[in-house]
Amino acid sequence: MEEVVDRENLMKAWQRVKGNNGAPGVDGMSVGELPGYLNRNWAVIKESLLKGEYQPQAVKGVEIPKPGGGMRQLGIPTVLDRLIQQALHQRLNPIFDGDFSESSYGFREGRSAHQAVCTARQYVSEGRRWVVDMDLEKFFDRVNHDVLMALVVRRVEDKRVLGLIRRYLQAGLMVGGVASARAEGTPQGGPLSPLLSNILLDELDKELERRGHCFCRYADDCNIYVRSRRSGERVMESIKVFLSRKLKLKVNEAKSAVARPWERKFLGYTMTWQQKPRLKVAPSVLVRLKGDIRRLCAKARGWKMANTVKELTKKLRGFAAYFRLAEVKGALEEVDQWVRRRLRAIKWRQWKRPRSRARELMKRGLDEERSWKSAYNGRGPWWNAGSSHMNQAFPLKYFESLGLVSLLQTVKRFQGNT
Prior knowledge:
With 418 residues, this protein is an alpha+beta fold. The chain is 54% helix and 11% strand. The protein contains 18 helices and 10 strands. The strands form 3 sheets. It has a 4-stranded mixed beta sheet, with no helix packed on it. Strands 6-7-3-8 form a 4-stranded antiparallel beta sheet, sandwiched between helices. Strand 6 and strand 7 form a beta hairpin. The two termini are 43 Å apart.
């Protein structure tokens, strides 16, 4: 605990918390207010930590949409508890991380989702053309505190630290002004939760290594690569038993399967069926991206086109950065075309009346006869957005001049720079 509250460690933790600039917790204190609060109260807080008496506050319950549908429960600790958790993490991580599996990629310095995806592709190219795709049911809500603490005790002797970790696990979840006690689970949202999840799931990693399996795990997303369906089914059944008996965790039957790798997605990617598979963006991810863009464009009908493009560019640039490993690019080109059609549809709607549409088309370089004919064609915005007259009025160069990002070209640039 003396190492946790060491000034240098705390200053490093503060820089991390300040950089993240998260939302206030149940006490309403912002990140900017914390230094003043610590100036007045740190002596008392430090003493309570060193005596093993510090009591964390409840975490603020917040629900956010899951990418695949449904809601995910987050728990936002107070900014003070985020600082202490970060300081704890910085001292605990070196103790545990060196022993973690090489096949564990989530929440670890120097490791990434991209590395996990590339390793998965390598396993498939080596002939392991079946995957045991396991989804742990409500993992962060189901973590057994006793099982987890038994694993932490193996490496940590300081009872003050052990007590503090358990109190963080048991900190109440406040929703609608009412705090409820927690008997299991580790709320997502605090700096300590990712490390604790890796400590627990390292037991799964070690079991898979003991059995000689090839696998990739990123947080609670684990794929095991085998050479036959029968082998995959045996692995699935035996690992279910291990997770249930040893770690008190349950596999989500509806979201787990033994299948071909190109029939499943892993961290947003899937792959082709060839002997040397190529990575591509999973179709469900593209559907979700289009849904996000559709909602943004619906809000943007009264905006200037430059503002709409600016908002779109933020999303598209981030998407391209994550999916820069994609080798199958036809889908990206199709999304680029679809985005431009969406923007042309916004323009058509904004013009509203046929007379306005004819006038605007002429301004954009179309001859008078064609402009009037197009303006009075009686078709809807989406049809017109894909027509030759709107393509001529708003060509690719127009959108490039506004700074619209092309997924296809951005991914190519990323790949050219690596």
